[in-house]
Amino acid sequence: MGEIVDSLRLAQPSVSKHLRVLLEVGLVDVRRDGRRMLYRTNAEAIRPLHEWTETFERYWRHQLSRVKERAERKSHSPNDAGTDSNGRRKHDFDRNKN
Model confidence over 27-42: pLDDT tens digits? Predict the structure, then answer.
């Protein structure tokens, strides 16, 4: 646990609490080696969580690709100053206000 505390720069009680929760839900296994407690991730238990999060990963990857494509199209199109994304000029909106 000391290595985890050092690498994450968290207080030991905080790390102990989190490890205890992970142990209780079966996401980690622990074994004692003298005075040390050695923790290991339980890959089989983590697999369903990983598969579930992949759904969101695919969704957001697709959404970010769409944003990137739109931004690239916008940056490569002729920049017509004073127009909005639909090609309307700013003064067209001003005329509609009155």
Answer: 999 999 999 889 999 9
Query: CA-CA distances (angstroms) from residue 93 to 18, 48, 81, 82, 86?
Result: 56, 52, 15, 11, 12
Spatial contact of 8 and 15, defined as CB atoms under 8 Å apart: yes
Let me know how long the chain is. 98
CA distance 31 to 70: 52
Contacts of residue 1, Cβ cutoff 8 Å, sequence gap at least 6: 12, 15, 16, 19, 36, 37, 39
In degrees, to the nearest 5, what angle opens at C-alpha 81 toward C-alphas 79 and 86?
A: 75
pTM, entire model: 0.51
CA 18 to chain centre: 20
